[in-house]
C-alpha cells in the first residue's frame, strides 16, 4: 500500500508539472482560456488512479531494474490524463451532471455561461466547451506519453508501448460507440444476443482500457518478454471485466457518497448493461416490459429508482453478476500462477484485485 501511495503522489506531481508547462501556451493566446486550465487541474486531481497503478505494476511485472522512473511515471500520468478526457466526453454523452461528487465539466461551463449572462443556450455552450476540454486533455495525454517514451533507454520497447497505447485508444472509442449503440438499438436485436452484446461493450469500453492495456503498456515499456505480456493480458482482461461488472452494480445500487454519482444513475441513463440483460432474463413479460419502459427516463425519481432496484434484485440478476465477478476474479488470479512474473509484482497485482472488485455499495 505504501508503494501505491508513493506512486500516486509521483503521478500527481508529474501531472502538475506537465500542466504548468502548458499554462504559458494557453495564457499567451487569451486570458479567456483560463477556465480550460483550471478545469483540467480539477479533473486531474484525486481519483482512484487504478490505470496508473496497473501501468506501474506491469512495468514491475516485467522485472524492470531501471533506476530512472521518469519514463514509467510519465506513461502512468498520461493514462490518467487520457482517462480524464474520456470521463469529460462520457459525461456529455450520458448527460451526467456530476463526476466524483462535483459538477461534471460541461455543467461547469454551463455555470460560467449563466454567471456571466452570455448570449445563447447555456447547455449548448456547456456541451461544446466540454467537448473541446476533452479534446485538449486527449492531446495532452499524447504529448506527455511522448515525453516519457523519448526518455526511455530502450526505444524498441518505447515503440511497443506506444503501439499498445494507440490500440487502447482505438478500442475504447469503439467500445464507447458500442455502448451508445446498445442503448438505442437493443430493441431491434435478437433477444438471445443481448447478453453477449452487453459483455462485448464491457470488454472494449472498460476491461481492456481500465486494466489490461495499462498493464501491457507498462510491461512493454520495461521490455517485457512475449510470455510476460501474454500473462498480463490473460490476467488483465478477466479482472477488467470483473471491475466493470462491479461498476455496473454500483451504477444501480451505489451510495452517492461513495460513487460520487446519484444512486440509480445508470437507470436514468438507460444503460444496457450485463446486469440489465440478466434481469430481463429473470422477469415475466409484463415486468420486463415495465423495466424497458422506464429505463432511460431522466425524470426517474427516488421512489421509482427504488422500485426498479427491487425488481432487479428479485430477478436474481445481482446474484448472477456477483457470480460472474467471482468467476472472472478466479480466472485472473489463476493466470498469475506459475507465470513469468516476479513474486513481488504478483503480490501487488493480487492486492489490486481486491481493491478494484471489492468496492462497497
Automatic annotation (TrEMBL):
<dbReference type="InterPro" id="IPR000092">
    <property type="entry name" value="Polyprenyl_synt"/>
</dbReference>
<dbReference type="InterPro" id="IPR033749">
    <property type="entry name" value="Polyprenyl_synt_CS"/>
</dbReference>
<keyword id="KW-0808">Transferase</keyword>
<dbReference type="InterPro" id="IPR008949">
    <property type="entry name" value="Isoprenoid_synthase_dom_sf"/>
</dbReference>
<protein>
    <submittedName>
        <fullName>Geranylgeranyl diphosphate synthase, type I</fullName>
    </submittedName>
</protein>
<dbReference type="Pfam" id="PF00348">
    <property type="entry name" value="polyprenyl_synt"/>
</dbReference>
<dbReference type="GO" id="GO:0004659">
    <property type="term" value="F:prenyltransferase activity"/>
</dbReference>
<dbReference type="GO" id="GO:0046872">
    <property type="term" value="F:metal ion binding"/>
</dbReference>
<keyword id="KW-0479">Metal-binding</keyword>
<dbReference type="GO" id="GO:0008299">
    <property type="term" value="P:isoprenoid biosynthetic process"/>
</dbReference>
<comment type="similarity">
    <text>Belongs to the FPP/GGPP synthase family.</text>
</comment>
<keyword id="KW-0460">Magnesium</keyword>
Amino acid at each position: 500500500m505504501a508503494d501505491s501511495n508513493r506512486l500516486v503522489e509521483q503521478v500527481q506531481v508529474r501531472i502538475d508539472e506537465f500542466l504548468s508547462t502548458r499554462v504559458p501556451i494557453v495564457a499567451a493566446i487569451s486570458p479567456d482560456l483560463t477556465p480550460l486550465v483550471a478545469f483540467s487541474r480539477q479533473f486531474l486531481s484525486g481519483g482512484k488512479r487504478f490505470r496508473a497503478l496497473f501501468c506501474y505494476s506491469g512495468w514491475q511485472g516485467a522485472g524492470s531494474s531501471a533506476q530512472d522512473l521518469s519514463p514509467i511515471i510519465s506513461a502512468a500520468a498520461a493514462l490518467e490524463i487520457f482517462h480524464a478526457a474520456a470521463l469529460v466526453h462520457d459525461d456529455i454523452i450520458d448527460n451526467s451532471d456530476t463526476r466524483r461528487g462535483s459538477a461534471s465539466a460541461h455543467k461547469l461551463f454551463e455555470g460560467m455561461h449563466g454567471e456571466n449572462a452570455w448570449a445563447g443556450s447555456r447547455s449548448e455552450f456547456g456541451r461544446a466547451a466540454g467537448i473541446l476540454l476533452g479534446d485538449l486533455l486527449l492531446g495532452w495525454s499524447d504529448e506527455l506519453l511522448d515525453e516519457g517514451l523519448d526518455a526511455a533507454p530502450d526505444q524498441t520497447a518505447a515503440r511497443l508501448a506506444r503501439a499498445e497505447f494507440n490500440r487502447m485508444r482505438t478500442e475504447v472509442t469503439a467500445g464507447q460507440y458500442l455502448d451508445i449503440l446498445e442503448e438505442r438499438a437493443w430493441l431491434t436485436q435478437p433477444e438471445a444476443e443481448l447478453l453477449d452484446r452487453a459483455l462485448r461493450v464491457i470488454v472494449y469500453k472498460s476491461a481492456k482500457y481500465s486494466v489490461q492495456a495499462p498493464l501491457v503498456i507498462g510491461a512493454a515499456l520495461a521490455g517485457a518478454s512475449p510470455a510476460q505480456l501474454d500473462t498480463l493480458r490473460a490476467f488483465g482482461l478477466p479482472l477488467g471485466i470483473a471491475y466493470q461488472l462491479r461498476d455496473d452494480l454500483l451504477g444501480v445500487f451505489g451510495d452517492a457518497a461513495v460513487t460520487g454519482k446519484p444512486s440509480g444513475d445508470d437507470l436514468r441513463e438507460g444503460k444496457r448493461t450485463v446486469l440489465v440483460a440478466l434481469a430481463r432474463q429473470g422477469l415475466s413479460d409484463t415486468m420486463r416490459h415495465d423495466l424497458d419502459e422506464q429505463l432511460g427516463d431522466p425524470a426517474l425519481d427516488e421512489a421509482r429508482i427504488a422500485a426498479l432496484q427491487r425488481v432487479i434484485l428479485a430477478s436474481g440478476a445481482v446474484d448472477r453478476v456477483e457470480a460472474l465477478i467471482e468467476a472472472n476474479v478466479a480466472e485472473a488470479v489463476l493466470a498469475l500462477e506459475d507465470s513469468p512474473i516476479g513474486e513481488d509484482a504478483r503480490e501487488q497485482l493480487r492486492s489490486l484485485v481486491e481493491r478494484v472488485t471489492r468496492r462497497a455499495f
